[in-house]
Amino acid sequence: MSETLQRLVGQLRAVVVKEIRQTTQDRRMIFLLTVAPFLQLLLFGFAIDLDVDQVPTAVVDLDHTPESRETIAGMLADGTLAHVATPPSVPDAERLLEDGTVAVVLVLPEGYGRDLARGVPTQAQVLVDGTDPTRANVAGGAASGYLGLEGLRLAQAQIAARLPEGRTLPSVVVRPRLFYNPTQSTPIYMVPGIAGMLLLIITTIVVSMGLAREREMGTLEAVRVTPLPTPVLMVGKIAPFVVVGLFDVTLAITAGAWIFDVPIRGSLLLFYGITALYLLTTVGVGLFVSTVSQTQQQAFLGGFIFVLPAMLLSGTMTPIHAMPAWMQPLTALNPLRFYMEAVRAILLKGATFTEVRVQAAALLVYGLAIMALATSRFRKRVS
Amino acid sequence: MTPDHAIEVDALSRRFGAFTAVDAVSFDVGRGEIFGYLGANGAGKSTTIRMLCGLLAPTSGDAVVAGARVSTSPEAVKRNIGYMSQRFSLYPELKVRENLEFFGGAYGLFGRHLNTRIAETLDRVGLHGHAEDRTSSLPGGMRQRVALAGAILHEPGIVFLDEPTAGVDPVARRRFWSLIRELASAGTTIFVTTHYMDEAEYCARVGLMVAGRLPALDTPEGLKATYVPGDLFVLRGPGAHADDARARLLAVPGVVDVATMGAGLRARCAADAHVRGDALAAALPAEVEVEPDTASLEDVFLAVVDAEAQARGAARAFGEGD
């Protein structure tokens, strides 16, 4: 028995050593596995900024009264809207909206100040370019939010003026307090997600191409005629890339902490444990793709067929609850989704194992299932 | 399994859907024998070798290779054989030593024993001092010997060589074959597929595969005596260049085939015809030089393919064939 074990360990070591030698032979591969993810993390960390501010705005003041000027100044005060143009008429403003110079047009009609002073209902118009829905939402929200509050303030002032001395109006003030990411910084939210995506891309694609390359070169035939057991071959081929993945994720959270102030509130051990489970699924998918591909080209494309939807349906870029109802259950098949949830919870909230056990279990189940599937597919091709 | 047989094949068959790649093939290979397996591309050579190596399960029939059944214990078969394929089954980006460490490790060798075997085997195949060379930098003939080294590191009793010399120059081929003969004389059984007919002459026995079947199996001499029994003549000179030279020769009683060979013609005669050289010369309009020739395995190959085609045609005519 111990002799069998010794032989298995020797066989596994032979495969691992060979994989490492092949990979380190290729300088482009080393770059792809270590430097590229780091650069991409920086790039994405800086580029993916979901905050909307400084939306270019045109102001058409047809009223020219102190009231209209006060309203405009108030709307521009918080920096969401940036006053960049003052066209003389509404048609001129619409042209600016059309050619993209501005994304928002504020129109205060003639008589705005007079109506306000009289205390009768009046109107202000806000035109929003809806091509970018997020920006339109935020800009429209800022404008209508300000105008709504302003209306309420004016109404309260009128009512208060008629109240007896010493009485005040009842009111509810909402002051949300944000936990975990109080400054609402996008990188803090995005960096764990980006790390998960980079791991997915690198490990899935590299592993899927590895076996396909052996098939293309004809070496797979030579390997298969040896008594190397299939599971040993599989484990040996993926183990180095799991290590590379753990290295990359270390790089990612280090860079995240230093450059983007991403906190590490939970246990690092838990974080690495979850990452290892996640890598089991990504390399498993890579192995599976390689068992259904004849060439490296097919493997590369096959890898992307999985990687792209997995990224989009993970809740990294867009919240899962914003997806169509029929699509939401699909995300339950996505390992990236569970990894993302778990990592955000561990890093940002300091979650413990109990709080991420569902995600851990899902990753473990998917990892084992895809590995089993890949191994059986690989064996089946033989007979 | 008799102790004299390294390989025993019994009605081994493999079908892929409706296509029968290997059709009830049976033969034995003796210990230390060099056994040649010939056939055109697509005749079923590779499918046979893949089944014998435990890579492909037979549809029916079975084979015992190095004491293990390929149908039930392919893993035991794999442990006891070495295999080298027509495509260089090496990692070109790795060094010679690194390749051998991998294949040795895959066969369960490790530690000092592995290192010793690598050194011994490299010596044996004449690659002493090349351990640290990058495999891709070696010429084809040397790479082929590295691949052979990888197949014999674990000292298997049987080595399968699947078109081992494809794409290698004649000098390297000759050197390779002298290595193979050394291995065999040391007791290793060699099963080799090739479509170089001159290489088949090195084999103790040769099996000829045609369309999935094995109609001919014998020593090279036996095959020639059976399939090319008659006399052969080579005719050179002005007479052989006449436009109707072929037709004139075929008109001579006993001549069964005339083929172009180099600048002359080669006539094959029926076994019991006793055609004489001067009868052939007399049939031609101008002077020729006539020399008797010996049969080659190529003649055998063509004769076997012909006979098979005729047998099939006959079977089809009687409505028996497919």
How many domains of chain A? The number is: 2
Termini separation of chain A comes to: 29 Å
The CATH H-level homologous superfamily of the largest domain in chain B: P-loop containing nucleotide triphosphate hydrolases
**Succession of helices and strands of chain A:** HHEHEHEHEHHHHHHHH
The two chains with the largest interface, and their residue counts, are:
A-B, 27 and 32 residues
The number of helical runs of chain A is: 13
**Fraction of residues in H or I helices of chain B:** 25-40%
Taking the sheet with the most strands of chain B, its summary is: 6 strands, mixed
Tell me how many strands of chain A there are: 4
Alpha-carbon distance between the termini of chain B?
34 Å
Main beta sheet of chain A: 4 strands, mixed
Secondary-structure map:
The complex is a heterodimer of chains A (383) and B (322).
Chain A lengths: L1 H24 L1 H21 L7 E7 L4 H11 L4 E5 L4 H9 L5 E5 L3 H7 L6 E4 L4 H30 L23 H32 L1 H6 L5 H31 L7 H24 L4 H17 L22 H15 L3 H28 L3
Parallel strand pairs in A: 1-2, 1-3
Antiparallel strand pairs in A: 3-4
Chain B lengths: L4 E12 L2 E12 L3 E6 L5 H8 L7 E6 L2 E2 L4 H7 E4 L11 H11 L4 H14 L15 H13 L5 E5 L7 H16 L3 E6 L2 H4 L4 E6 L2 E6 L1 H8 L4 E5 L8 H6 L4 E7 L2 E6 L7 H7 L5 E5 L3 H21 L5
Parallel strand pairs in B: 3-8, 3-9, 6-7, 7-8
Antiparallel strand pairs in B: 1-2, 1-4, 4-5, 9-10, 11-13, 11-14, 12-13
